[in-house]
Amino acid sequence: MTMFIWNFPMSGDANASNNSKEFFQGPSRLIDLKQDQHLQLDNMMSTKSGITIMGICTIITLLSPVFSTGKYRSFRAVLFMSMGFFGLIPAVHAVVLNWDEPERNVTLAYELAMALSYLIGTMFYIMRIPERWRPGFFDLAGHSHQIFHVFVILGALSHYGAALVFLEYRSRLRCDT
């Protein structure tokens, strides 16, 4: 919970980027950020709940014989892609909170590479490339499902790289309390 809010301002007089106090002035002044910590916890819990529910739906879909047919191949692929897109919510949150940190760009690049890997792999899976071009030739090796899994592994490695950058960054921080 506290891994992204270490440098978050603790009053309404400061903003997240610390470079424009006028941004929060006027009738639309934001909520006091001390009270907003509860809102952050609620947002995090709703994000975790959403991805958990989506994961349960994915498991049910994968284990159900009805959804294992070719008719629902695109539905399964869209379900996997939606889980990947759901990861944009915490990524955008982290970018906003760590706007002034140079590690943000490196971590974001890794996460974008992860998302592209998942999307490209899913496109191979949906479009049945390359077996649609040479039916029967790719029955044992090189078919779309295998290519999909290669891209999933590449995405996982990219996510691992982002986690390493983030953990190295977090290890340099000190707790002032």
Automatic annotation (TrEMBL):
Topology within the bilayer: Multi-pass membrane protein
Coiled-coil regions, chain positions: none
Major subcellular site: membrane
The keyword Transmembrane helix is assigned to this record: yes
Claim: Repressor is one of the keywords in the record: no
Alphabetical UniProt keywords: Membrane, Transmembrane, Transmembrane helix
Localization per Swiss-Prot or TrEMBL: Membrane
TM spans (from-to): 50-68, 74-96, 108-127, 147-167
Name of the protein described by the UniProt record: Uncharacterized protein
Organism, scientific name: Solanum tuberosum (Potato)
